[in-house]
Amino acid sequence: MITPTKGITPQRALLTVGGQISLILTEPMTVSQTWTALKTWRTRHENDAVLPFSWFVLALDTLHALGTVYYEDGLLHRKRVS
């Protein structure tokens, strides 16, 4: 689930989706804006694996657990590496 497995393709693995979220989260965005931007990014990059909103939320949870994103004042922020 977090990494690709026999039943989870690389395009759907939570770390892959989280990486894609990190790529598009270059500035603070609402959850809705991030969801829309991710769907657009995946379409542009011919990533046709089905991604339900619940899987997107799990990827955000994974990123938050890893300490790479945080939510403040209604916006998602990507933590900068110092």
Question: Can you put this structure into words, describing what you see?
Answer:
It is a single chain. With 82 residues, the protein is mainly α. It has one domain (14-78): Arc Repressor Mutant, subunit A (Orthogonal Bundle). Helix content is 46%, strand content 10%. The protein contains 3 helices and 2 strands. The protein has helices at 14-24, 31-44, 53-65, and strands at 69-72, 75-78. Strands 1-2 form a two-stranded antiparallel ribbon. A hairpin with a 2-residue loop joins strand 1 and strand 2. The longest helix has 14 residues, at 31-44. The mean pLDDT is 92.
Q: Summary?
A:
This protein is 46% helix and 10% strand. With 82 residues, it is mainly alpha-helical.
Query: Count of helical segments?
Result: 3
Tally of separate domains: 1
Structural class: mainly alpha
- Outline type: globular
Strand order of the largest sheet: 1-2
- Rg, rounded, reads 12 Å
Sequence of secondary-structure elements: HHHEE
Could you give the distance between the termini?
29 Å
Largest sheet: 2 strands, antiparallel
Per CATH, which architecture?
A: Orthogonal Bundle
Unreliable runs: none
CATH class: Mainly Alpha
The averaged pLDDT comes out at 92
What fraction strand?
5-15%
Write the CATH fold name: Arc Repressor Mutant, subunit A
Helix amount: 40-55%
Number of strands: 2
